């Protein structure tokens, strides 16, 4: 049984809260080294988002584009980063959870559980 899933969670560290309603685009690097967009999703009220479910998530190199400019604009906050790309190698047969810790002038990410 394929248990692979791909998910994210965004926390806005400038206010100490989850970042809700942020659009996230998932792309896969194809065999000719070009990005192929797979889908767009949106974080829920808790800042969480299931990006790809089992059966939709083959091994490969993925790019997550977090469209955070609109999130900050809605709050009348200037940001240096209108979008953030995170590229991950998802070659193991396991769940991948990639959180984003966000503020208007910086960000950090890590391999979550």
Give an overview in words.
Strands 1, 2, 5, 8 and 9 form a five-stranded mixed sheet that branches. Strands 4-3-6-7 form a four-stranded antiparallel sheet. It has one helix and nine strands. The chain is 6% helix and 50% strand. The mean pLDDT is 95. The longest helix has 7 residues. It is mostly beta strands and 113 residues long.
Strand-helix topology:
Layout: E1 6-12, E2 17-18, E3 23-29, E4 35-42, E5 48-52, E6 60-67, H1 68-74, E7 84-90, E8 96-103, E9 106-109
Largest sheet: 5 strands, mixed
Number of contiguous helices:
1
Shape, please? globular
Strand segment count = 9
Query: Cα distance, first to last residue?
Result: 19 Å
Using only CA atoms, what is the Rg? 14 Å
Oligomer: single chain
**How much of the sequence is in beta strands?**
over 45%
Mean pLDDT: 95
* Share of helical residues: under 10%
Extract low-pLDDT stretches: none
Element pattern in H and E: EEEEEEHEEE
What is the SS-derived class?
mainly beta
């Amino acid at each position: 049984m394929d248990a692979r899933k791909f998910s994210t969670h965004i926390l806005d560290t400038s206010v100490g809260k989850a970042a809700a309603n942020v659009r996230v685009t998932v792309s896969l690097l194809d065999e000719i080294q070009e990005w192929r967009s797979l889908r767009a999703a949106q974080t829920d009220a808790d800042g969480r988002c299931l990006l790809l479910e089992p059966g939709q998530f083959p091994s490969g190199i993925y790019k997550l584009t977090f469209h955070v400019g609109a999130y900050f604009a809605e709050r009348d906050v200037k940001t240096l980063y209108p979008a953030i790309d995170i590229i991950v190698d998802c070659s193991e047969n396991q769940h991948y959870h990639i959180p984003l810790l966000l503020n208007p002038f910086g960000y950090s990410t890590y391999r979550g559980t």
